[in-house]
Amino acid sequence: MYTEKVIDHFTNPRNVGEIPDADGIGDVGNAVCGDTTKITIKVEDNRIKDIKFKTFGCGAAIATSSMLTEMVIGMTLEEALQVDDVAVADMLGGLPEQKMHCSNMAAHALHTAIEDYKKKQ
Amino acid sequence: MYTEKVIDHFTNPRNVGEIPDADGIGDVGNAVCGDTTKITIKVEDNRIKDIKFKTFGCGAAIATSSMLTEMVIGMTLEEALQVDDVAVADMLGGLPEQKMHCSNMAAHALHTAIEDYKKKQ
Ligand code: FES
């Protein structure tokens, strides 16, 4: 049901936690299952310098959040805003159809964090 | 949103894994979110001697599965069949309403494992 890459990111998630003095915060909920994901970012020269995530979500939510943080570190904010749930699922080698709603949260939380950063400038 | 007991069982889950020579197996899916939970049991003298769970579910699913395994070890099969999602949620000090669908899986998987054991006798 799950690719090796999904299992890897689920059992050994990268960039878990919360940046205490974050430049942007995105805290979003999932309408389907009621889970939440929080992403905090540090921004330097218009690029994502650091990113951490926290979720109470399922294995698919953990894996997509972990994968997304690895993908966007070093990206400009414009590039990071282009990363959506489909791009992350692709990098994971795919996700079961009924778990795509879980993968939405990571990208949504990231975009919210970037908008939060922009608003604060 | 979550009680200390939920957070404890989520971050430090008990009885995770799979019993290789299990007497009963319950593998169930969740209609709401598409997650799955697998419970394996060892039975001796009509009592649950050992139990392990595996889930790709969310934090609430992990916490309820962990709590349930602690509750039912040593119980007779009849006692274990009385344990439902509400009993487990109570032992955890409650769960948010929108996460009750996650807590169903643990009890459902246990009951399926007990029925599986009985069928094999
Ligand atoms: S959201 Fe799937 S088990 Fe909780």
TrEMBL record, chains A, B:
Q: Name one Pfam family in it.
A: NifU_N
Which CDD domains is this protein grouped with? IscU_like (cd06664)
Q: Which InterPro entries match?
A: NIF_FeS_clus_asmbl_NifU-like (IPR017787), NIF_FeS_clus_asmbl_NifU_N (IPR002871)
Superkingdom is: Bacteria
Record-level Gene Ontology MF annotations:
iron ion binding; iron-sulfur cluster binding
Residue span(s) of domain NIF system FeS cluster assembly NifU N-terminal: 1-121
Output the Gene3D superfamilies linked to this UniProt entry.
Answer: 3.90.1010.10
Q: Name one GO biological process term.
A: iron-sulfur cluster assembly
The identity of this protein, by name, is NifU-like protein
Phylogenetic lineage: Bacteria, Bacillati, Bacillota, Clostridia, Eubacteriales
